[in-house]
Design a protein that fits this description.
The structure is a single chain. By secondary structure, the chain is of the alpha+beta class. It has two domains: 2-82, 3-Layer(aba) Sandwich (Glutaredoxin); 91-186, Glutathione S-transferase Yfyf (Class Pi), Chain A, domain 2 (Up-down Bundle). It is 48% helix and 9% strand. The protein contains seven helices and four strands; from the N terminus they run βαβββαααααα. Strands 2-1-3-4 form a four-stranded mixed beta sheet, with helices on one face. α2 runs antiparallel to α3. Bound molecules: glutathione (GSH). Residues 10-11, 33-34, 50-54, 65-66, 102 line the site of glutathione.
């Protein structure tokens, strides 16, 4: 049985959305965590080594980090296609964009919001304006990150773009606005929001 360690309106909501898309049975355990305003505390039941959400257990397997959880779930539960398997065309783009959200998108945009200057050559991610240029150019040419097929990348990166547009952490463009509207129109997104 899959158990998601979750708190609503956090990054673990992406995993709820993914589990809804996959249509696999799962349970959620609501946990507390340390919030940005200084409230909240680590929850001792959460297996995440830093007490963050999401974390996920599945039988004897324990996972943390959204991208790793998404890759694990989409590799293991394949009745609904949510990403290319190893050896399938598009796996290269799938892995790269899955890693892009925590490795590039988030640090670039969060540090810009905090006013931290980008140090080219030292920081392992690109400068925020350049990230926006890459995302706009990529999505101007296709409906979804992998082309014409919705995948888990559109949950992790698409959900992130949707959130960052709402939080005004990204410049709104017609391309990004249309893309965010496309991915959040999915019934599984509505089920995640309702939950
Ligand atoms: N890189 C992690 C980030 C997880 C994360 O930072 N989650 C936030 C909630 S949105 C959290 O648990 N914060 C609590 C803390 O920083 O201790 C992932 O993508 O899963």
């Amino acid at each position: 049985m899959i158990t998601l360690y979750h708190s609503p309106q956090t990054r673990s909501s992406s995993i709820v959305w993914l589990l809804e898309e996959l249509g696999v049975p799962y349970g959620t355990k609501h946990v507390t965590f340390r919030r940005v305003d200084g409230t909240g505390a680590r929850d001792p039941v959460n297996p995440h080594p830093h007490g963050k959400v999401p974390a996920l257990t599945d039988g004897g397997d324990t996972l943390f980090e959204s991208s790793a959880i998404a890759l694990y779930l989409t590799d293991k539960y394949r009745a609904t296609w949510m990403g290319p398997a190893a050896g399938e065309a598009g796996r290269d783009a799938y892995l790269s964009w899955l890693a892009y959200r925590p490795g590039v998108l988030e640090p670039a945009l969060i540090l810009r919001r905090l006013g931290t200057p980008h140090v080219q050559g030292m920081m392992g991610w690109a400068e925020a304006n350049e990230v926006e240029e890459v995302l706009n150019a990529h999505l101007a040419a296709r409906d979804y990150f992998l082309g014409d097929r919705f995948s888990a990348v559109d949950i992790l990166l698409g959900g992130g773009i949707h959130f960052m547009l709402m939080a005004r952490m990204m410049s709104e463009t017609e391309v990004l606005k249309a893309y965010a509207a496309r991915v959040t129109a999915r019934p599984a997104f509505a089920r995640m929001m309702a939950a």
